[in-house]
Amino acid sequence: MKILKHLFGKRDKELDILQEEALQSPLRTVVKNFTSNKLSIGGLIIFLIIFLIVLIGPIFNPIDLSDKEETQINVAPGMNMMKVPDGLKGNVKQISTGATFSVGIDNDGKVYVWGYTKISNKIDIAKNMPSQKEMGKVVAVSAGFDHVIALNEDGEIITWGSDRMGQCKLPMELKHEKIKQIAAGYQISYALTESGEVVAWGNENLNDVRLTKRNGNSHIAKISVANTTLMALTEDGEVRHLGSQKSDISNIPEDLGTVKDIVTTSDACIALLEDGSLRIWGKANKSEKEIPEMDGEIVSMFAGRYHITALTDKGTVYSWGSNSKHQTDVPKKATNVSAIYGGTYQNYAVTASGDIVTWGLKGYLLGSDELGRDVFTRILNGGRMTMTIGAISVIISTIIGIIIGGVSGFFGGWVDIILQRITEIVACLPFLPMAMILTSIIGNSMSENARIILIMVILGVLSWPSLARLVRAQVLAEREQEFVTAANAMGVKKSVIVFKHIIPNVISVIIVSATLDFAYCMLTESTLSFLGFGVKLPRPTWGNMLNGCVSSVVIQNYWWRWVFPAIMLGICVICINMVGDGLRDAIDPKSNER
User: Which residues contact 175 (CB under 8 A, 6 or more apart)?
Assistant: First the structure.
């Protein structure tokens, strides 16, 4: 009975680690030891999450290497560009959108500002706005690139924001004129008087504006600001270009007929004709020319930088053009709309019930860089590039290290002497300077894709010596085992003995080394790219994203451009090292006691 109880009864105590190793397979022991290390498991989970994000993320958020947008330069992290203030909801009279901020007025003439309003360290559109008492009851507003114009019920124009080019200094001729319309552009301001003449002030060198009566500056009913010029609609329904330079947008079609309304994107003009149809000319992209079929007649419209939004008499909204910032993704709830507003990349639709529906660019999760590119998108795609280069480099170095280390350790003699001298020569080469020299000499004559492949090969070819020595030491110990002697006696080929019998017995050590080398190769690639010898811009990697952040101005004022890539790279490398240390301890549990 005692024997049966001993065989089939519950154990009174857990087996110690030496007894378990005797009963379990080596793989199960390694897995058990690794999973018991909470630090390593945590590092593995974090790394796998980041790996999956950078692997799958670019599929849903691809990168356009030609993308750059001067209106979105160095925007801080945040998703508040279309966060309409509560006081404006249900009481909207007008909304105007600038580059990264919006300005609105309610039916009581009160002004609201929201979005990314910090233009510089000293200029903030929201903080520098005059008090409501100073402005009075405002009846119209217009937001420019970095300044705002407002018109109150007394006909006074109020301006604030950047005045670097004099765009906030009112000219003398406006003091005795009644204003019908105001408009703000890039470092320039416009006012349309009741007499139908346009007055401009600000940077007229950058903006092509020629306001003379000979040029048709009279009997103007509406003005519309393009990228660097001005278009106008006369009281007779004629479209005019109020500039002196010839361009695509100035080439107005002769067969337009009578025009009821005009709006302008960055470099194109859209005219609403008397018969209700639309006509587009200028430097319009293909998507801007694809006018959708609309249910009803257009009653109002506006244009952003590269898109157009229209409202029909049946309360339906249509948006078309570029959708790079989701500015044409009209929500389903935008029905029974009574008014539409917007600009650059934002859209606001006011429903009959007073609700405000928004769509377009809400902001940048991790900010934008010096060319107006989304840092989050570049981190996603750059992470995939950095990890790909690191992984393939490790595969190359591991293959070379296993072959040289295995052959050197098994055959010994003159083979071992020659291979170890080669290993020492490669190991003595200054790794980083050598990689920089090779990529600069060979890579400059290659295409970008070929250059990336070259970087992988260089990193792999220069980083195998440590693994080769480790494999050699393990093979030297394993080749004296009985199973190797038996294989030799049976006439098994020596190459089969090395790579089929001995190497699998030391694979755990190779995995640990390759894991740690993965982090090393990622750091090396990032270092090369940071120094300008790796992957070239505009293709992102975590290394070259840090390249533009060596300026003290960037470090102090635009911290998001270097903090987030550095954090991602640092977290990945630390997690990989924790996994490697955990694997090493799991393979050799007694190492913790030493």
Answer: none
User: Rounded to whole angstroms, what are the CA distances from 580 to 34, 292, 395, 456, 462?
Assistant: 10, 57, 16, 22, 21
Percent with pLDDT over 70 in the chain: 93
Contact assessment for residue 340 and residue 317, using Cβ atoms and an 8 Å cutoff: yes
Specify the DSSP class assigned to residue 207. Answer: S
Report d(CA 8, CA 445) in Å as an integer: 74
> Which stretch of DSSP H or E encloses residue 50?
helix 38-60
Q: What would the pLDDT profile of 192-202 be if each residue is shown by its tens digit? A: 999 889 999 99
Which strands make up the sheet holding 278-282, listed edge to edge? 259-264, 268-273, 278-282
| The pLDDT of residue 106 | 93
DSSP secondary structure letter of residue 37: -
Please, which contacts does 106-114 make with residues 24 or more away whose CB atoms are closer than 8 Å? 108/137, 109/136, 109/137, 109/138, 109/139, 109/152, 109/153, 110/138, 111/135, 111/138, 111/141, 111/150, 112/84, 112/85, 112/87, 112/88, 113/148, 114/80, 114/81, 114/82, 114/83, 114/84, 114/85
**Strands ordered across the beta sheet of 101-106:** 111-115, 101-106, 92-97, 337-342, 346-351, 356-360
How many helices and strands, by DSSP H and E, does the chain display? 16, 21
CA angle 178, 184, 186 (to 5 degrees): 150
Residue with tokens 């934002």: 346
3-class SS at 476? helix
Whether the pLDDT of residue 564 is over 80: the answer is yes
- Return the H-helix or E-strand segment holding 555: helix 552-557
3-state helix, strand, coil in the chain (%, to 5): 40, 20, 35
Query: 301 by DSSP, 3-state: which?
Result: strand
Nearest Cα neighbor of 575 from 164, 45, 124 is 45
pLDDT band at 25 (very low <50, low <70, confident <90, very high): low
Distance of CA 316 to the CA centre of its chain: 33
CB proximity list for 570: less than 8 A, separation 6 or greater: none
Residues 6+ apart with CB under 8 A from 306: 265, 266, 285, 288, 321, 322, 324, 327
Burial class (CB in 10 A: 0-12, 13-18, 19+), 151: buried
